[in-house]
Write a structure and sequence with these properties.
This protein is an alpha/beta fold and about 300 residues long. It folds into three domains: about 1-145, P-loop containing nucleotide triphosphate hydrolases (Rossmann fold, 3-Layer(aba) Sandwich), CATH 3.40.50.300; about 150-190; about 190-305, Zinc Finger, Delta Prime, domain 3 (Up-down Bundle), CATH 1.20.272. The protein is built from 15 helices and five strands. Strands 2-3-4-1-5 form a five-stranded parallel beta sheet. The longest helix has 19 residues, at about 230-245. The protein is globular.
Length: about 300
């Protein structure tokens, strides 16, 4: 998978390699981009390059904190203790934190104490898909590296090389919106891909129905224990596709198997209203992070559309 991500993000990888060639490695880097786009894979690749080690997971000079939901203060305390120990070989140490926006308030305060007074031999690689929630101090001191959607053709070719049928490879390359990790995951779970497509078709149709049927749909989502942030991601994808159609950018559409349904949906709403949907979806994500009742949050969305 690493080689495929390097090909998809060769511009960023080239930039990072030049940093090492020019001996200009900085104190901290912030990798910004959508979930699943390949930030973590490139971060581990960069850490290997910095440390000149392949098996970095077992290296004493490498630390990785992974928790996309909530990084607690205990994790930061362990990190602080590790950094306080004498570095016997005088080698550089690399810290990868994913997701930098998921530090709890207590963890944020503890992290700033070690981040604001950096040791000369430590490089931080911080990852996030929501730069607005990253600490201002981190934003001001870390060099930003933005990860955009990967090249769909490259992802398609990668899936073909893995033995996928051309039609499945094309649909998944589009559906994954440039996220190689998601594309590879779906290619290994074609049943889930079919389920996701059917679910999206149902999402579009539900907004044309009576409110009590919409609320029943919400109950069904919760009863099936679907991941609510993933549902909102799929909803955002549909709205973005509909916006692309209204703007005449059909090549940007990911859910092409729903082309007729999306065009029909788009006739009922202005571009401004569609943008409003996206903004409201983002607000719901923030509310859910604060443990707001999922049922009430989704019902609010159903009333808005």
């Amino acid at each position: 998978m690493e080689e495929a991500h390097i090909l998809v993000h060769k511009k960023n990888c080239g930039f990072l390699e030049n940093i090492l060639k020019n001996n200009s490695l900085g104190h901290a880097y912030l990798f910004i981009g959508p979930k699943g786009v390949g930030k973590r894979t490139v971060a581990l690749w960069f850490a290997k390059k910095i440390l000149r080690e392949e098996n970095i997971e077992k290296s004493q000079n490498f630390c990785q904190i992974l928790d996309e939901k909530s990084i607690k203060i205990e994790e930061v305390r362990k990190l602080r203790h590790s950094l306080s120990l004498k570095n016997p070989f005088g080698r550089r140490r690399v810290i990868v934190i994913d997701d930098a926006a998921s530090l709890t308030p207590e963890a944020q305060n503890a992290f700033l104490k070690i981040f604001e007074e950096p040791a000369k031999d430590v490089t931080y690689i911080l990852l996030t898909n929501n730069v607005s929630r990253v600490l201002p101090t981190v934003l001001s001191r870390a060099q930003r590296v933005r990860f955009t959607q990967g090249d769909r053709k490259q992802i398609f070719n990668n899936l073909i090389e893995k033995g996928l049928e051309r039609e499945d490879a094309m649909q998944i390359a589009l559906f994954s919106r440039g996220c190689l990790r998601e594309a590879e995951r779906l290619s290994e779970n074609l049943g889930e891909f079919v389920d996701r497509k059917n679910f999206l078709r149902e999402v579009l149709s539900i907004f044309k129905k009576e409110y009590f049927l919409r609320f029943n749909f919400i109950k069904k989502i919760l009863d099936q224990e679907r991941n609510i942030p993933d549902f909102l991601t799929d909803f955002d994808g549909l709205i973005k596709d509909i916006l692309s159609l209204k703007l005449g950018r059909e090549d940007d559409v990911a859910n092409r198997f729903l082309m007729d349904e999306m065009k029909s949906f788009g006739h009922s709403f202005s571009k401004e209203k569609l943008v409003e949907f996206l903004k409201f979806s983002g607000e719901l994500r923030s509310l859910l992070l604060k443990n707001v009742n999922s049922k009430l949050a989704l019902e609010k969305l159903m009333l808005m559309v």
